[in-house]
Amino acid sequence: LQRRRGVGTTVAPPRVGVDVSTTQHTWPGVGDEAWQPLDSAADVAPAAVARVLESGSDERVHIVRRIRVSQGQAVAAELLYVPVGSVPGLSAIDAPAGPARARAVLRELQHLALDGQDRAVELGSARADDAKELDRLPGAPVLVVTTRYLSAGRTAAVSVATYRADTCRLTFGDSVDLVMAS
């Protein structure tokens, strides 16, 4: 059961197991149809992301926005930050806007050799834009998974994915279905 002010007590949906394993060692957008690209824009990354990218605070990056759907429900929203230098073959003429532009950025990333990736998971609060995409109230508890993709000895992209904490159970590697005691 879950209680929400102004709504009352309702039956909570079952938790969905979401694999966030690093064993795949692939670029975002490869072999994972659960993530749907929404759009891409060129802008300046937030200061914390710029530090991880080891870029200047005023350097423009491609920001790809994606949503992850499981069993017909949005369970995660992602912002993928890609430095312009990581995708030099990207042409504005090829894909001017929207999902097509997002797919073009992801496709260009795949031309790089992926050396590895590392991840961090932390508990957070939903920002207004994430809350809207995930059908939650701003400030709702979420799990934030930050992934750094490495190529040619440098950070080629950074993903910040926000997962609904109320419906997701993150799994790492070949996890078996664990039964949790309450």
How would you portray this structure in words?
- This protein is mainly beta and 182 residues long.
- The protein has a single domain, classed as 3-Layer(aba) Sandwich (Chorismate lyase), CATH 3.40.1410.
- The chain has helices spanning 47-53, 98-109, 128-133, and strands at residues 2-4, 8-10, 16-19, 35-44, 60-70, 73-83, 116-125, 141-151, 154-164, 168-171.
- The protein has a six-stranded antiparallel beta sheet with strand order 4-5-6-9-8-7. A two-stranded antiparallel sheet has the order 1-2.
Which range does the strand content fall in?
Answer: 35-45%
The number of domains: 1
Number of helices: 3
Termini, distance in Å?
13 Å
By helix and strand content, what is the structural category?
Answer: mainly beta
Low-confidence stretches: 178-182
Features:
3 helices, 182 residues, mainly beta, Chorismate lyase, 10 strands
How are the SSEs placed, and which strands pair?
Layout (H helix, E strand, L loop, with lengths): L1 E3 L3 E3 L5 E4 L15 E10 L2 H7 L6 E11 L2 E11 L14 H12 L6 E10 L2 H6 L7 E11 L2 E11 L3 E4 L11
Parallel strand pairs: 3-10
Antiparallel strand pairs: 1-2, 4-5, 5-6, 6-9, 7-8, 8-9
